[in-house]
Amino acid sequence: MKYARAISPAIILAACLLSPLLAFLYRAPVVVVSDAAFESLYGEGRAAAARAFLSSAVCRRVVLVLVSEQAAPESAADAAAAASAGRGAAAVVFPSRYESGAAVFASRNPLIPLAIVGDPRRSISGAGAVVPDRAADLRLAGRIAAIAAGREGSVLPVEETGVPAAPNGRYIAFTWLDPALLPKGAAAVFDDSVYASLYAAYRAARARKSVSAESRVFMPFGGKEFLDEYLLIQGALAPRRH
Questions:
Q1: CB atoms inside a 10 Å sphere around CB 235
Q2: DSSP conformation class of 157
Q3: Which residue in 27, 51, 88, 218 is a FRET match for 173, CA 20 to 30 A apart?
Q4: What's the predicted TM-score (pTM) here?
Q5: Residue 128 and residue 114: Cα distance in Å, rounded?
Q6: Is residue 31 scored above 90 in pLDDT?
Q7: Positive or negative, the Cα torsion across 217, 223, 224, 226?
Q8: By three-state DSSP, how is residue 190 classified?
Q9: How far is the C-alpha of 83 from the C-alpha of 101, rounded, in Å?
């Protein structure tokens, strides 16, 4: 009897600890479609961190599905469907480069929430979408360019090509490439990839609507000489009090 009384609290404690984990594993996952080349150039660590963030935010597993860069629409749809087998998927996220595959998947699996990230060329019935807010990105880039050029409080025109934005050789890049692969001197890197908008894509898929999203901005300042500039930009981007 004493042994039974001693073991009962242990069983209860183990059940309390395991229940959230079992619920996490049992829930339908979020499926993200990508390819090996993109994952490598984006940075596997960055991609894994974005998936881990979404997983913790929605309390679901995030399953990565890799397809060939030249995959036929049916192949991309089949790969996503295979990852959704069993309990289905809470949402499936396709980059716009696999838009045709997303359309095939949607036609075969109309009950599974779906979202496309990028600039879709067509609308898919019942699917959500995350469209980059280019105007907002360019406004912010202009402010960063002005600060990098020593003209705080103004806005410089910035072409969406990553050209130098300041006389000191600093530039602003609009790319999803891993910042570690870029030439030195980047004042800011605007990332509008799937991973930059992954949480927004999940919500768009669940709501089955289109939303616009600003790029994720990375400021790869390095060294003490950029500290004051970094603080100036942070101050310019902070909400103003009235």
A1: 11
A2: -
A3: 51
A4: 0.78
A5: 6
A6: yes
A7: negative
A8: strand
A9: 14
Q: DSSP labels for 101-148?
A: HHHHHHHH-TTS-EEEES--SS--TT-EEEEE-HHHHHHHHHHHHHHH
Per-residue confidence at 12, pLDDT binned at 50, 70, 90? low
Q: Characterize the bridge pairing of strands 91-95 and 30-34.
A: parallel
Do 236 and 143 contact (CB within 8 A), yes or no? yes
For residue 30, is pLDDT > 90? Answer: yes
191 phi-psi bin (left φ>0, alpha ψ -120 to 50, beta other): beta
Distances (CA, A) of 89 to 30, 42, 104, 109: 6, 25, 16, 10
**Helix ranges restricted to H, the chain:** 2-26, 36-42, 44-58, 73-83, 99-108, 134-148, 198-207, 227-237
Residue range 170-224, pLDDT digits in tens: 788 889 999 888 888 788 889 999 999 999 999 999 999 999 998 998 877 543 3
pLDDT tens for residues 75-106?
999 999 998 887 789 999 999 999 999 999 99
Residues 6+ positions from 242 with CB-CB distance below 8 Å: none
What six digits make up the tokens of 174? Answer: 């609009």
The C-alpha atoms of residue 236 and residue 107 are separated, in whole angstroms, by: 46
Q: What is the CA radius of gyration of the chain?
A: 22
